[in-house]
Amino acid sequence: MKYIEKLASIRQEMKEKAVDGYIIPSSDPHISEYLPDRYKCIAWTSGFTGSAGTLVITADFAGLWTDSRYFVQANEQLEGTGFELVKLQVQGRPEYATWLAKNLKKGDTVAFDGNLAAVAVAQAVQAELLPLGIEVNGHLDLLDPIWESRPALPAEKAYLIDESTTGQSTTSKIEAVKARLADKRIDSHLVSSLDDLAWLLNIRGNDVHCNPVVLGFFLIQPDKNTLFIGDGKLSAENIQALNKAGVEVESYEKAFDAVANISDGRILLDPKKTCFSIYDSVKDSVDLVEDMNPSTILKAVKNSVEASHTRHAMVKDGVALTKFFKWVEEEVASGELSEISIAEHLQGLRAASEGFVDISFDTIAGYKEHGALPHYKATETSNSTLKPEGLLLVDSGGQYKDGTTDITRVISLGNIQDEERADYTLVLKGTIEGSMAIFPKGTRGYSIDAITRRPLWETLRNYGHGTGHGVGFFLNVHEGPQVFNMAAVDIMIEEGMITSIEPGLYREGKYGIRIENLVLTQAVESNYFGEFMNFETLTICYIATDLVDKSLLEEKHISWLNNYNAWVYEQLSSHLSPEEQAWLKKKTAAI
């Protein structure tokens, strides 16, 4: 069925059910960013494959609301589908609700599948539409009746990981969450988000591409703790270990009824991580508390074991990347390298490392103009052949049993232009400024964002995405609650958090530049003026210096760059062949 035909079928369903506007979020019952195939509803409906967006369909309009990271991609993928791109003004804001309010009339009905909409999204839609007399139905799935051969839920096995890897037992993690619940006099708590579930129960799986998670819910109640997971996904040994940790195991589908059957007390649900269907099933007799999952902040603060393991994973990742960039440099003149082939080669190099599980997201290998698309993924149609000229941006990462990596580097393949050199140097200057930041305890991410952007702002340059996101420990490469962006997110940057620093600059149709390292927040000193923190850089991969215009850097930036590259050589050289050592020695030479 073509996309235009699917759109017609949805409109027919809407007509039969008296629906005037239908919303399709990019989500699943766990409000995940990356989705199992069964819930890739936007891709199935419209052909758009980005990880953030919302479709809205009316009788005479069909649009995709998404942010600047996906504008070019969306325009290409939506062509001929019947859907139009609507550019979000503010990333993540439900601006489509305002559009519906302006374009529908009193008495009309807007619907969505409550299994796919977060509570916060559903509430935003209701707040916009209900005062205008527009009805909202949050329990209508119009896709399932027309989705032929819809993928089933994943059936791969899940598994437990040992305390020697995580640094903390399942029992102690549950106790830590319960202690926070007790402080708020909360009796029950449902964990819907898959990364919170994975961290809390020391469980991993293969249910979502690139994310080592398993579909499930975890319900904490006064008298028991229950994991709801697909039948057959855990071995008898794993079930026994969970039972020993005080966790009962039930079928996945029973989670919805378990929440609906709670008749008293106070229950905590995270409105950003719980689907509306579950939220709406809570009895009126239950006091519903909307707040962040306690596990979210606990998970974000890595313990010393997790930090140590991550440093080890970074060495393996750095070795793979060194081999990769050497290979690209030596083979590019052959004319046989393409964006797809180099991504496959890099994955193969990572896969040769001990403890490698998967890549942590689809590799972004953007040559020349494709580098200007922040979330680009090469297809057979777009796949560019590399030549010994222009810029190559590679944003990639690995999932290892001892850590998660995420790194972006830009290299010149030849014929460097002055504009490219200046842009590269200013982005690098931003990366260095963010990495060198010293800040008082209590600082929020928007302050780090501003520090990092300053070198670009000073030259009237900017970028449309955030400066940094949290990263999990052998978990999701995008992990909250902390972010480094311009939004006033009221989450302080705490000691032990791992976050990316990744400023960029994009010239559409020409090239893109982004330089990304992961950093660990650490304490510096406590004095009369308070407690201060800074960052330990974790990523170990040389930063290209042949693109640097030294005249745009101060001595402190040059010193940081030289020290960083020297440290990279020191960390990796013993894991490389003599030929690779010699190559890296040149790449890390001081400027």
Automatic annotation (TrEMBL):
The keyword Metal-binding applies. PANTHER family: XAA-PRO AMINOPEPTIDASE 1 (PTHR43763). GO terms for molecular function: aminopeptidase activity. Belongs to the peptidase M24B family. Residues 531-591 form the Peptidase M24 C-terminal domain. It comes from the Bacteria. InterPro entries: Creatin/AminoP/Spt16_N (IPR029149), Creatinase/aminopeptidase-like (IPR036005), Creatinase_N (IPR000587), Pept_M24 (IPR000994), Pept_M24B (IPR033740), Peptidase_M24_C (IPR032416), X-Pro_aminopeptidase_P (IPR050422). The keyword Protease applies. Keywords: Aminopeptidase, Hydrolase, Metal-binding, Protease. CDD domains: APP. SUPFAM superfamilies: Creatinase/aminopeptidase, Creatinase/prolidase N-terminal domain. Gene3D superfamilies: Creatinase/methionine aminopeptidase superfamily, Creatinase/prolidase N-terminal domain. Residues 310-521 form the Peptidase M24 domain. Pfam families: Creatinase_N, Creatinase_N_2, Peptidase_M24, Peptidase_M24_C. Residues 7-129 form the Creatinase N-terminal domain. This is Aminopeptidase P family protein. Signal peptide: none annotated.
